[in-house]
Amino acid sequence: MPVLVASDLDRTLIYSAAALALTMPDARAPRLLCVEVHESRPLSYMTETAAQLLTDLGDAAVFVPTTTRTRKQYQRINLPGPAPKYAICANGGHILVDGVADQDWSARVAARLAEQCAPLAEVQDHLMASASPAWVRKHRIAEDLFAYLVVERELLPEEWVKELAVWAENRGWTVSLQGRKIYAVPKPLTKSAAVREVARRTGADLTLAAGDSLLDADLLLAADQGWRPGHGELADADWTAPAISALPERGVLAGERILREFLKATRTEAPR
């Protein structure tokens, strides 16, 4: 039976220049591979060693990129290794099969959201009314499923984020602060639900997962074994669970370590 590896991407496997955390002397810094270009500029990286590990993993397991990115944002990433047959975008809102969204899954998600939480328009109106132009740089709607703000982090009032989280909680939504982005996401919109569907389709009897943010907690809890890096929302909250390993590595070297753990667990499972 195949092993399914569902991993978050940003700040888990791939890293912007600001998130690399290259704390070692320059001469000892790892060689980097650019895996994303946006508007003709390099945007995201992994180490060359991580790129080889991901290639090996793609040959050994069903690797499923599992991201909060929109489909358009995901499709500009050029990961090394075999092209994944399945990918999960928009925090579980879309399952891509050979790069094409599964329309039946998308319709099921839309129906679930309509039944279980406040509408996106209400949340967007609240964000527009309560967030200050002094620290908000962009308001965005993603795939007509959730909303996020791009902010000046050093100017962002911590109390405002806490108040937003309470307001959202009462309406069936959750709030996540990741770098310069504040996400407001419906609670029923989860990576774990989409991963369970892919596991069902592939017949996987073991699921491995990794992620760094609050939006990855349900993914990690749904996996048989999971890892989180030493940075991000989950690390800041000292979040853990019985089957989750909290790694000490931070930045791009955490991505390398996560891929080593995926491969080790996959190869341990292989003889069964």
UniProtKB/TrEMBL annotation:
Record-linked InterPro entries: HAD-like_sf, HAD_sf, TPP-like
Presence of the UniProt keyword Hydrolase in the record: yes
GO molecular function: hydrolase activity
Keyword terms of this UniProt record: Hydrolase
Keyword Hydrolase: yes
Superkingdom, natural source: Bacteria
The protein's name: HAD family hydrolase
Source organism (scientific name): Streptomyces chartreusis
Upper lineage: Bacteria, Bacillati, Actinomycetota, Actinomycetes, Kitasatosporales
